[in-house]
Amino acid sequence: MTKYEWETELKKCMVRLPKAEQDRVLAYYNELFADRADDGMSEKQIINEFGNPVDVAFKIMTEYGMDERAPDDERKIAPPDFYSNKNDELVSPPDFWAGKGGRKTVSKADVNAEKEKAKEEKEQRRDIKREDREARREERRETSSHSGAETAMFLIEIILLGGLFLGVVAVVWSLGITVYTVGFSFAAGAVYSLICAVMPGVALGARLVEIAIIFLTLGIALVIIPNVVKIGKFGVKATAGLFNGMFGWYTNKNKKSDRKAKSANAVCEEA
Amino acid sequence: MDAQLKKGLLEVCVLAAIKSEESYGYKIISDVSPYIEISESTLYPILKRLELTGMVTTRSKEYNGRLRKYYMITQKGKERINDFVQDLDEFERVYRFICGRSDIK
Q1: B-chain residues near A59 (CB < 8 A)
Q2: 3-state SS string over B18-84?
Q3: What is the pLDDT of residue A85?
């Protein structure tokens, strides 16, 4: 125990003393503490010498004529509701019990009637509670199960989302196929034009223009064709990503609704 | 020792401790404790009682950067010691009587 703890305990025990007196006591012990410390004693030794703060407070309180250790509130004993007197009548506690007024006599019949009344009230309260609990459980059950409207909404949701998903996949693949087609068309066109250009019977100027166009289309085709694999991979990845995203979103949504339903059921069970 | 008897004795002992010069709590305990058992919690009510009955007066004096309360005996306190000393004759007589009666027994 430290000095602070000792003093705090002492203060607690002297709470019924006037504040000025408490301060005097603390000043007295502070002075003694300092004198002993000057004398070379340690805090622990001094506290041991002083003794239990409860006993110290008790001695001081005794001087004040307050010789009970416990505060007033702690000493009070709860008074009995009724007790039998010499005539076997149930009477209220006498005046000296705290919180009681005058003495009054009550017949046993009155007491029994009071008890019956209290019992009935208790049963009524219990019934009300049970009904309330049942109603809440029923409500939870209704909210946790799917109604027809909810099922319809679910189907519409799924159809719309599925349609949207398929639309996005179709667009991705259409773009990919378009790029494929353009690339191969350019390549085929270039080959065809080359065959035409080298054939006899065409003017030299026209042949040169044709050859230039052939190189242009070949160039475009050579840019597209090597990336065909990449475009294909991108298409597959985009589809997979879309599918995963949608699957994950839908699964989480279902999990959340499951959890809600479970917690609602748990509340019902507890109730 | 009987509590009431000890209480009276302690009061006189405390007065005797400050008879020749003013003193403070710790010194009073140190001076008195070789002769009669006394603790801090016992001394406080005694000093308070002596002060209230006008047998001691107090003053605070600075010591080592703190205030220390000094107790001084008053004339009334000195008279109390004298009364006690005079009472001792009576005590002695009673003592002899008690011991004499005990011897007889």
Answers
A1: 41-42, 44-45
A2: CCCCCEEHHHHHHHHCCCCCCCHHHHHHHHHHHHHCCCEEEEEEEECCEEEEEEEECHHHHHHHHHH
A3: 55
pLDDT attached to residue A95: 46
B44: nearest CB among A34, A35, A60:
A60
Give SS3 for A98. Answer: coil
Q: Write down the ipTM of this complex.
A: 0.86
Domain boundaries, chain B: 3-104
Main-chain dihedrals φ then ψ at residue B56, nearest 5 degrees: -135, 155
Tens of pLDDT along B62-94? Answer: 888 888 999 999 999 999 999 999 888 888 888
Q: In what order do the strands lie in the sheet with A105-106?
A: A83-84, A90-91, A105-106
Domain B3-104 CATH (choose: 1.20.272.10, 3.20.20.140, 2.60.120.10, 1.10.10.10): 1.10.10.10
